[in-house]
Specification:
heterodimer, A: about 375 residues, alpha/beta, Rossmann fold, five-stranded parallel sheet, four-stranded parallel sheet, B: about 90 residues, alpha+beta, SH3 type barrels, five-stranded antiparallel sheet, binds iron/sulfur cluster
């Protein structure tokens, strides 16, 4: 219990931990998946796992947007960045993600004009400031960032900015959860649902998880107490034999999500037939591309994007980590050949990737426990 | 980019494009508030919002905002990095 003091209310944390332990059925092992990378980060930073009884295991899901971009898409991004006259803009997190052909950071060192931006609206401003250049924005992320790209496109159109292009890589959470549920090597008891994604999509889209798959999902906030409380709510459902969608983060998340955000997405983007996810492979209808009405702003139509598929490095087990089949430290190169400074796989790049979260916070107690038993 | 950071709206800069100035841990920058322009979650000067990549995504109360900020400050490096990126931003 050594991490309990870091919590805002240590008493509440301890009580929740005790209550969770009290709900464990003797002999039963529980696997709860936190879908969102932000939760993974919280869990390691604050040692939430150490508070849970050994019978309750947290599995780290695929909800880290940087981690799921396949190598081929990074290579495509580099090919765009290396075009003459292109200013390539990206969130900082994507800079170090390795493709088959190095990272954007390396492309920048070779002379490509790659710029980090905080917001797609910064990319649009750069386009405004450089009318003689073509500015490409590397749009990534789940539903949390998709509305930003959508609103930026609407603004580009209303202002008639023609030298701004979006390289769309937005992915959607529901098909990823479906893929996980369909994965035979994984038996989950419940889900801790993403907080910020749910501010956009609301809680209704998760209902199939409870209704068709009989598994509880509790949307949770990002503080350690939120995660603990969500785990508790799931355990209560399991103990009572219920499977429902519940909202622990109602102080931010509304049942209906943000209508205006959903409208902006629907106006500018549509579902792709299929999209490759790092580690998970192709998942049908799991990503978005620009609608025909926005063809003039679509980098994939404007340029010849190589679109070569690059296999994940053999040593990297990001796929297994993203599906929660193995823990990061079970990967053979974890912490040796693969570190945040020299990542082999994307799970080691973003601070929300499970491998990086494990590495940065060095919480190996679970491992020691496992080794000891 | 995945962190939702709380900021307080200090000024409405551009009504037409829904641009407002927010204060995030002392860093003042413009963000887009179009998603919270009307309806029950409509925001005005003084309100707190959670911001993602330059867009206010949800309205929150002050208590939640301060608690989240404290949490992020204790998170350390990732929040510092987010603030650095925000500092480099100049949304129009
Ligand atoms: S430790 Fe590195 S190589 Fe291994 S799964 Fe994680 S990211 Fe991939």
């Amino acid at each position: 219990m050594k991490y309990v003091d870091e919590y805002r209310s240590p008493d509440v944390a301890r009580r929740l931990a005790d209550q969770i332990a009290g709900l464990v059925e003797p002999g039963r092992q529980y696997k709860l998946m936190e879908v969102c990378g932000g939760h993974t980060h919280t869990i390691y930073k604050h040692g939430v796992e150490n508070l849970l009884p050994p019978a309750v295991d947290l599995i780290h899901g695929p909800g880290c947007p940087v981690c799921v971009i396949p190598m081929g898409r990074v290579d495509d991004a580099i090919a765009l960045a290396e075009r003459p006259n292109v200013i390539f803009t990206t969130f900082g997190d994507m800079m170090r993600v390795p493709g088959g052909n190095g990272s954007l950071l390396e492309a920048k060192a070779r002379g490509a004009d790659v710029r980090m931006v905080y917001s797609p609206l910064d990319a649009l401003r750069i386009a405004r400031e450089h009318p003689d250049h073509e500015v490409v924005f590397f749009a990534i992320g789940f539903e949390t960032t998709t509305p930003s790209t959508a609103l930026t496109l609407l603004r580009a159109r209303s202002e008639g900015i023609r030298n701004f292009f979006v390289f769309a890589n937005h992915v959607t959470i529901i098909p990823a959860i479906r893929a996980i549920l369909a994965s035979p090597d994984l038996r989950l008891d419940g889900f801790i649902g993403p907080g910020h994604v749910s501010t956009v999509i609301g809680t209704v889209p998760y209902r199939f998880i409870a209704q068709d798959h009989g598994k509880p999902l509790v949307v949770a906030g990002f503080e350690p107490l939120d995660v603990l409380q969500a785990a508790f709510m799931i355990m209560v459902q399991l103990a009572e034999g219920r499977a429902e969608v519940e909202n622990q983060y109602s102080r931010v998340v509304r049942e209906g999500g943000n209508e205006r955000a959903l409208e902006a997405i629907a106006e500018t983007m549509e579902v792709r037939t299929t999209f490759e996810w790092r580690g998970l492979g192709f998942i049908s209808q799991s990503a978005l591309k620009l609608r025909d009405e926005f063809a003039d702003w679509d980098a994939e139509l404007r340029y010849d994007v190589p679109g070569v598929r690059v296999a994940d490095p053999k040593a990297c087990q990001c796929g297994e980590v993203l599906k929660g089949v193995i823990k990061p430290w079970e990967c053979k190169v974890f912490g040796t050949a693969c570190t945040p400074e020299k990542p082999i796989g994307t799970c080691m790049v973003s601070s929300e990737g499970a491998c990086a979260a494990y590495y940065n916070y060095g919480r190996f107690s679970r491992r020691l426990e496992t080794l000891a038993t | 980019m995945c962190l939702g950071i709380p900021g307080q709206i200090v000024d409405v800069v551009d009504h037409e494009h829904h641009i407002a100035k927010v204060d995030v841990s002392g860093v003042r920058r413009n963000v887009n508030v179009a998603l919270l322009a009307t309806g029950p979650d409509a925001v005005e000067v003084g309100d707190w919002v959670l911001i993602h990549v330059g867009f206010a995504m949800s309205k929150i109360d002050e208590e939640e905002a301060l608690a989240t900020r404290e949490f992020l400050e204790r998170l350390g490096n990732p929040y510092e990095q987010e603030l650095d990126e925000l500092r480099a931003s100049s949304i129009e």
